[in-house]
Automatic annotation (TrEMBL):
Pfam families xref list: Inositol_P (PF00459)
Source organism of the structure: Leuconostoc carnosum (strain JB16)
The name this protein goes by in its record: Myo-inositol-1(Or 4)-monophosphatase
Entry annotated with the keyword Ligase: no
Entry keywords, A to Z: Hydrolase, Magnesium, Metal-binding
């Protein structure tokens, strides 16, 4: 099913209203004591805000889109087995550790794919009140400012963002990638890292991610002409975890070469 441009714009504006409401609720919740739990291990945190945000987003999606299938982090979505039809991805708080401990460098992310094709993505930088949003039919915006593609710099010309745990243990060639870059950083959250790449503040970002971590970022990055793949250069599996690489085209080639060597 192909949506017309005005239909895509209507969806975009509708989700922006949802995100405005979510930001207000999230900022208010940050003034109170958070309820913090763990999932897979002590570093895999979840809060009452993660769960409340996901419930609210999923309710809004189902009310708005009768054809919606939802892939979301905290268990309130569907057990999706394929990418047929309207598939929405929801990350209610991306970077929960940052949210709990630093109160910054976290995001709320939503994406829409139709028949496995990227349509729209939204990354809300909650603290800075900026939504990065758009898709291949309408372009990419920071709030209302249209973004232009970042410069196609090589790995040696820019900063690369990497998963701290995998860098520490030298996995996937991350140690060699960090040494070859002009500089490297560890942000600890997918949304803020994707933002830096699409804004041209970093030439690349790689980490192990779940679908809700990379779905929105992939829409925005590809729309801006950036390369997105797994660490072996293959297309991402939209329904399972991947070692994701998003980068300028030149840095992407540099990083793949270092990983393979």
């Amino acid at each position: 099913m192909t949506l017309r441009r005005f239909e895509i714009q209507d969806i975009d504006q509708t989700v922006l209203l949802w995100l405005e409401e979510l930001r207000t609720k999230t900022i208010a919740a940050m003034q109170d004591e958070l309820t913090v739990g763990t999932k897979s291990d002590v570093r895999d945190l979840v809060t009452n805000v993660d769960r409340a945000n996901e419930k609210l987003i999923n309710q809004k999606i189902r009310a708005y889109d009768s054809e919606a299938h939802i892939v979301s982090e905290e268990g309130f979505g569907d057990q999706q087995r394929d990418m047929k039809g309207h598939v929405w991805f929801v990350d209610p708080i991306d970077g929960t550790m940052n949210f709990v401990k630093e109160r910054e460098e976290f995001a709320i992310m939503i994406a829409l794919y139709i028949d496995n094709q990227p349509v729209l993505g939204w990354i809300l930088d909650v603290v800075n009140n900026t939504v990065y949003h758009g898709g291949p039919e309408i372009g990419v915006f920071a709030n209302q400012l249209r973004l232009t593609p970042p410069m196609d710099e090589s790995l040696a010309q820019g900063i690369v963002l990497l998963s701290g745990a995998r860098l520490l243990y030298g996995m996937f060639g991350y140690d060699h990638i960090a040494k070859a870059a002009l500089g490297y950083r560890v942000i600890g959250a997918a949304g803020p890292s994707f933002i830096r790449v699409i804004r041209g503040q970093a030439v690349g970002y790689s980490s192990k991610m779940m679908p809700w971590d990379f779905a929105a970022g992939q829409v925005l990055a590809k729309t801006l002409g950036l390369s997105v793949s797994d660490i072996d250069g293959q297309p991402l599996d939209m329904l399972s975890s991947n070692i994701v690489l998003v980068a300028t085209n030149r840095a992407h080639r540099d990083i793949l070469a270092l990983h393979k060597s």
